[in-house]
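Notebook, p. 212. Picked up where the previous page left off. The plan for this session was modest: take the two constructs that came back from the sequencing core last week, fold each one, and keep the raw output in the notebook itself so nobody has to go hunting through shared drives later. Recording the first one now, exactly as returned: residue sequence, then the structure token string.
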Amino acid sequence: MKNLFLFAIMILFFATLGNAQIPDKFTNLEVLSKDISKRELIGNMRSFAIGLGVRCHFCHVGEGNDFSTFDFAADDKPQKKKARVMIQMRDAINKQYLTQLGEENALQVNCVTCHRGYSEPVTLQQVLIKVISEEGIQAGIKKYRELRQRYYGGFTFDFHEQALINLGYAFLGKKENENAIEIFKLNVEMHQESFNGYDSLGEAYMKAGNKELAIVNYKKSLELNPNNKNAETMIEKLKEE
């Protein structure tokens, strides 16, 4: 709901300011048609901004809301150069490849298809792995909370429990047990009624050598799902050991 509200504000912003302040004649158009109308160009810019969740100064030289002060023709920012390549890629997919599928009214790829309202087309797992590798597990958890606070309820990131569970098992696979434990703890905090979350946390504690907390979490998983045979088996195994 929050994302929809932000998108509505951005659309209103472009509608009220764009036509009045964007110049009537355009220069340095390399991938867009040199005969493009002002209305069509503004529509393209609006779709870029909404698709990436950014404002005009992300690609263009300028600050604030006064478009008359922007140097739209300047190629100073690398984001603008990347955008040209992305436009060419989008057009190639839509015109050269999707048309070969032979389907009427085939879906068209656009910026929002991959970016989903985020400046870089990355998954939640990719963002967290990068932060954790550079700054540590607690920084990664902080980043998760920030992203959830901002994007939850939209389609930018996947906040279902499987995203965190997959990340936790990625750490377990690398024998980074403490990182896995912290991710699984975060998951059960966010999804307290998930038996699978507690089952995974129990496994992480078991692999870290903490049998007591492993049993506690396996028992919690079994409480939430009495049919969880894995938890039942692991509890018996840990008690025997």
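Okay, moving on. Second construct, recorded in the same format:
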Amino acid sequence: MIEIIPIDTPSLGDRSYVATDGRVAVVVDPQRDIDRVLAVTEPRRLRITHVLETHIHNDYVTGGLRLAEQVGARYCVNAEDPVSYERHPVSDGDVLEAGDMRIRVIHTPGHTFTHLSYALSDAAGTPVAVFTGGSLLYGSTGRPDLLGFAHADTLARKQWGSAHRLAAELPDSTGVYPTHGFGSFCSATQAEGLASTIGQEKAVNPVLTQDEDDYVTELIEGLSAYPAYYAHMGPANAAGPGQIDLSSPEQADPAELRRRIEAGEWVVDLRTRKAFAAGHVPSTYNIGLDGSFVTYLGWLIPWGTAVTLLGESAEAVAEAQREMVRIGIDRPAAMATGGPEEWAGGRPLASYPVVTFADVGAARERGEPPYLVDLRREDERRLGYVVGTVHLPMHELFSRMDEVPTDRPVWLHCEAGYRASIAASMLQAAGRDVVLVDDNFYPGVAVAGLELSAGEPVSA
């Protein structure tokens, strides 16, 4: 009997997989911290025979090469991918054997030109699973614009064809196991559910229920911004990622923290947004571990800038460090644990107010409308927004900093408060007076004193 074990990476919205017949194992799209894979295979005494890459990833640094080298497995990468390391080249139609498992390689372009899927059959030859990477997702597909928007139409059409090929060649009972779609920006839209089959996707997935032109038009019109760090992932994965070092970085005392801040390095406070707002070291940034920490760190940081981590515990710092290596930020420059009073070394802490949308409405009813900035992406804002807000997408904050006023408090909101806290910390460090709106925004749900609307975004 074949067992498939998912290994989730919620912070990046991805899944890796271990497929086993009980004796040998095949690993699909492993993240860079391969100890998580070995924690699955070693206690079961499984021999990894193959490590399979569905594509050259854009949202994380792969652990495939190092895992294959460490365990002596074949590292299977598309023969057409221009990589700088030895691999086992595979192409459409190839069949791999691993114990009682048979794996057929299927070319499924769309997310990238060389994207592959892997159809896994049991010893009787019955297809039981297909690993679809960034191709066929749960209720969605991979986005077609990560290689440049000029390729989006061509790749979207290939994506449509690839999905229809899978649907035609595999039984409805075949389990679908994508890598993306659980929060990853590699997905055109987010996945619906945590499990599916070819038959279920044929019933609900737009790529399989719409005609080609409607699917392509809708897909491209719905594309949103994606993290800037993606530009560095493809080259890193094609070059061959190096080993990771998860040992603790050096400890920084208050004087060292001040020196790093004054030198323009990033000192990142990992605590929750409410804890940070109540008191923090001036000019530090808040990117909490309770949200999409590494996505926004990678999206906003000038690539190559040194990062120092502030955490309440060594475990919190270690968790953040592990997240960072997954996108190629290999070593924090330093760390400090404890709390802001210790990190500040007796110097005054900074803080800022935290409010709700009810407070925004109350201020407007008093005739004191705050300068309210909506940090959500354009695709989010099109679903609904608070009338009178200024739209400044979070990922454009640094490039548009001069548009943020210095003569009045700036109130900041997003969908739930996480991004607003990041923005508040960065704007305060840049000398702005900020107020964090830590509240959920539901388009169409009335809030006293607030007029809601829908339509195209209103720019600053």
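Notes on construct two before I forget. The longest helix spans residues 152-169.
Flagging for discussion at group meeting.
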